[in-house]
Write a structure and sequence with these properties.
With 155 residues, this protein is α+β, with helices and mostly antiparallel strands. 22% of the residues lie in helices and 35% in strands. It is built from 3 helices and 9 strands. A 7-stranded mixed β-sheet has the order 6-5-8-3-2-1-9. It has a two-stranded antiparallel sheet with strand order 4-7.
């Protein structure tokens, strides 16, 4: 009986580790863009954003990432402007979501989306750009603008 318990306990971490490895192996290859943003009218700060510009990358998003540098995040891009839906399934980090118009201006903000929460986060406006940053990283507000050459990205 003791041998059976030891076998079960020793095998448990392997199951967790193998699930993590499978998730890591399925992570899309994200290209990155450097954006700048003025926070509280200070000097521009650079952000390094992974680009999610197809269905697979948008669906995967920031899932399975255990940490994120303070000046990094993800930029979701669609060719068309629609109401956008998000959730935090398999997302380990609390996030702020910034919904942008096609000029990169923030038109809506969802603060502190909770890790692993399956609640639907739905934009109130039609958008084709969304930026996710670690919750509380930047005190951005409606009207702030990301500078990322969005016209080129949306083509």
């Amino acid at each position: 009986m003791l041998k059976k318990i030891k076998t079960i306990l020793l095998g448990f971490p392997l199951i967790i580790l193998s699930n993590t490895l499978v998730a890591e192996n399925n992570r899309p290859d994200f290209k990155q863009i450097i954006c700048s943003i003025n926070v509280n009218k200070n000097y521009p700060q650079e952000l390094f954003l992974d680009i999610a510009d197809n269905q697979y990358k948008r669906s995967y998003g920031l899932m399975n990432r255990r940490d994120m540098k303070p000046n990094s995040g993800m930029l979701f891009i669609w060719k068309d402007s629609q109401i956008r839906n998000f959730w935090m399934k398999n997302t380990h980090i609390n996030l702020d979501l910034f919904f942008l118009n096609n000029r990169g201006e923030i038109i809506e903000i969802y603060k502190n989306a909770k890790a692993f929460d399956h609640t639907n986060i739905k934009s109130q406006n039609k958008v084709n750009l969304v930026v996710e940053l670690k919750s509380g990283s930047y005190p951005l507000k409606i009207g702030d603008k990301f500078d990322c050459l969005f016209k080129k990205l949306l083509k």
